[in-house]
């Protein structure tokens, strides 16, 4: 990337991969288990100390609580933790980074490694630690560099600034991708320009992975002073999870027969892929389907999916993996409100919700597809039967975490599950399963304030088995055609590379268009920013995982929060800020309030601006956004919030599809200290609605 | 004024940067040839037929511009022709017009089974001259192509087309078919010949033009 933003050290103070299988005996040195440690210059004994202690704590806590450790919060640092089988990853960052963001960071990091190197265990068997350390280092620096702080917070894709280019060019890019897909060996593609996404047919997380290679190649060229004048074509092996692959292979044609379940699936998707269909044909809802019971699965899928799965070898692994994988990601997913679920399975969801206070902000939305898939299946059968279908899954370690989660709330779940099972049987076992699954998932995670707290979900008991097998990855190829700064990246079947005719066809059918698109994009000037509108905003599209923003301007010092609706509570935090809260459900109030106050105190107590590059004004806006985003992710009922100081206020609002943050500058503030109808802050929502319309942000 | 003069002055930085697919051995080795004409007359098909020898019946509207490079030898001279294909539809006008500048030759294309596309040739010529900022339109090399020769029902007769060419600057006229590859290579090669001939003429008229014009700022300073 051309922009050389310095990595913010707060995002990754420490990162390590620890292999527990290497340290079994009393005499085994801890260092034997350390596969990679960042910063690499850390003294060996300190590495041992940190890895040993953290791994020990994680193991201890997860065994005691029968649930996996996801977050360890210390006084000045917190560690996002991920365990898969014997492997443990921990990423240490500053405490004020939202949990959801740091988990997203860690997941991305692991995902990147697996995408380019294949399964971790095999990688470390086949290649040297040093070689792989370089890979980790590369992914770390990629994830930390380049984008703005806001991008980090939302783990969003870097996209080209579409406000300054002709929309027809986006259409052109999309058509190029479609033309490439006429070759049956091409699964999906994306077009990148100077390290930014122009158009993509892939799910956002997959696009993000593809972006790494491109960005790296591009910056290398720049660094070497090489102008990549010649168009060139490369192809490298990559590894997809079965769920990713399934999503890509499943033809859009199938939607029709599945339309009945779309609304639901939407709710399960990580980045809330709510209505993805309309945007990205390749992003079909299939992943969730793939993990349903066998019967619905085969019913639902036809065409290529069936073929893919027909041999039977892929299918189990897909089920396994997609569940596991997505689930893992999902925990970090943006929170989605429960109501849609209730619509169809009201009782179930409700009962779960009640059982779990705090509403599992992140989880419920997060438990989208695979969560529901996994659970759909149990719901499908009596607990006793579950050993059968679930057997293979147990090997997947990620799953295992899931399973652990589900253990505790058994009591709660029993009823609903049976319920779901029955309905499922009666009604063709599709929707209901999904629903009960979702309901369950919906509840389980709230990992925010408690240090090492892991969410509990409800499921039949599973024995957490350490040493589970890693989920299988499928080898594919990443074809890249570069025309200067423009890159066409296609995920293709491995035999594409040996098929000269297919390669030639794809190459020639896209070459002229790529040349033209590159010429267009190059001649597009960066565009002058419009006249200052006196406001600043950030808009995160959860479906496409993209971010639109305009430069922030003014400092904030402290916090007041307001949450929409019935109930209003006011309280003071740290003598600086006031928190006014109104929540839909009183049950959630206590915890939400507590965390708001704590957050307010944290923000206000901080004398120096903390967030990344930019002036203090920008940092403050970013900080407020981060704070709000964090709370949105934790409290599912939270829809609107205002963070303010004496001079300005940031308004945040979210729905399943988007999160928007808005700062009005220079507004006359009549802040009486207690919420009252005259307070200018309360006009922010309507201002935001009006001002942002012209940016294509619809808050109505 | 000879053509070389125009070409030097009107060469925007863009035009010399765009031909980027391969390194330029010398300035004259890369010729920018642009295809203009109504939507659907077969400009993209002509380009694809000529460069990749493929014909695709399912081409979508071109959006904006596209280009391909083709190395060829004409009359013993090696040149790289950069063929720019443009969008014919009116709504794409703002996207395509910036790329007219720097063209060495313009191929005005119509479809022999569509008389309106033939009538529009004059507009295309005018648009090109305006946006490409051609200083000497009379001497600028245009070539006229009547495509879709394979179609049975013609609406434009060969004689009619030739007459138009004679009346509008004596442009060469080719009847082509991208579908069955008739006359396509001949048309593009003729375009190259025209460009080379124009350049030769220019060099002949003002042998030292290139040097003088390139250093114009300096020489004017010395004059004062």
How would you describe the overall organization of this protein?
- The complex is a heterodimer of chains A (700) and B (224).
- Chain A is an alpha+beta fold and 700 residues long.
- Helix content of chain A is 46%, strand content 16%.
- Chain A has 26 helices and 18 strands.
- In chain A, the strands form 4 sheets. Chain A has a 5-stranded antiparallel sheet with strand order 2-1-5-4-3, with helices on both faces. Chain A has a 5-stranded antiparallel sheet with strand order 7-6-10-9-8.
- In chain A, a hairpin with a 4-residue loop joins β11 (535-541) and β12 (546-549).
- Chain B has 224 residues and is of the alpha/beta class.
- Chain B has one domain (28-204): Rossmann fold, CATH 3.40.50.
- Chain B is built from 10 helices and 6 strands.
- Chain B has a 6-stranded mixed sheet with strand order 2-3-1-4-5-6, sandwiched between helices.
- In chain B, β2 and β3 (77-86) form a beta hairpin.
- The radius of gyration of chain B is 18 Å and the shape is globular.
- The A-B interface holds A 166, 168-169, 171-172, 175, 179, 229-231, 484, 508-509, 511-513, 515-517, 519-520, 523 and B 14, 18, 20-23, 44, 47-48, 51-52, 54, 56, 60, 62-68, 85, 92, 94-95, 98-99.
- Chain B: Its cofactor is Mg(2+).
- Chain B: It catalyses: GTP + H2O = GDP + phosphate + H(+).
List keywords for this structure.
heterodimer, A: 700 residues, alpha+beta, 5-stranded antiparallel β-sheet, 18 strands, B: 224 residues, alpha/beta, Rossmann fold, 6-stranded mixed β-sheet, 6 strands, 20% strand, globular, disordered N terminus, disordered C terminus, membrane (chain B), GTP binding (chain B)
